[in-house]
Specification:
The protein is mainly α. It has 10 helices and no strands. Among the domains are: 52 residues; 36 residues.
């Protein structure tokens, strides 16, 4: 038989007089407590103690700061969730996931040889850019572009020149010098490309 809760919890020496409704609620609680077995009451008390300890944990300053941050970020979180929902509805999320799978497959398929080859190409490109910079290649490219633009503007509204007119331009020392440089370039190019045919 269950022992009354008042025997387990201890009796109060004086109970204040209560109104009718309060007395009914107190009697109902007392009857409920009287019908419980001692292990159940002990379990309830243990749960209440743990609940109090959790409340103490949540009452720490760092936890309160965390709650405040979450409350401040609430609107941002709502808009982020709305954006993610939008991405899902439009199919963009699926596309992004597929792209991620493709990138992962590419990463997984990279072998030491492929990585070495790619790094060698990068090193060669940097070396070539360094050589171009050393030989003032940027100035050469800028000069070629400027000369091309001037030539286009000069011949914009003119009709094409005949062969004799082009040959007469070779009397100009600058034209001969440019043609000599270009001819010399064409002679040396195959050797640097590794082909003499």
């Amino acid at each position: 038989m269950a022992q009354p809760a008042r025997k387990i919890m201890g009796t109060t020496s004086t109970e204040p007089e209560l109104s009718g409704r309060s007395r009914e609620v107190l009697d109902l609680i007392s009857a409920g407590m009287d019908s419980l077995e001692p292990p159940v009451i002990q379990n309830m008390v243990g749960n209440l103690v743990r609940l109090g300890e959790m409340a103490d944990e949540f009452n720490r300053p760092e936890m309160l700061d965390l709650f405040r941050e979450v409350a401040r970020a609430g609107s941002n979180l709502r808009s982020l969730i709305a954006e993610i929902r939008d991405l899902q509805e439009t199919g963009t999320m699926t596309t992004l996931l597929e792209l991620g799978r493709v990138v992962q497959a590419m990463k997984d398929s990279l072998t030491a040889g492929v990585v070495t080859g790619a790094l060698q190409q990068i090193v060669n490109t940097v070396f070539m850019m360094d050589q171009i910079q050393t030989l003032k290649g940027d100035r050469l490219m800028t000069g070629m572009i400027a000369a091309m633009q001037e030539a286009v503007q000069e011949n914009k509204d003119k009709s094409p020149q005949g062969v004799l007119s082009l040959l007469r331009q070779l009397n100009n020392p600058e034209a001969r010098k440019g043609l000599s440089i270009f001819a010399s370039f064409l002679q040396k190019l195959p050797a640097h490309l590794g082909s003499t045919n």
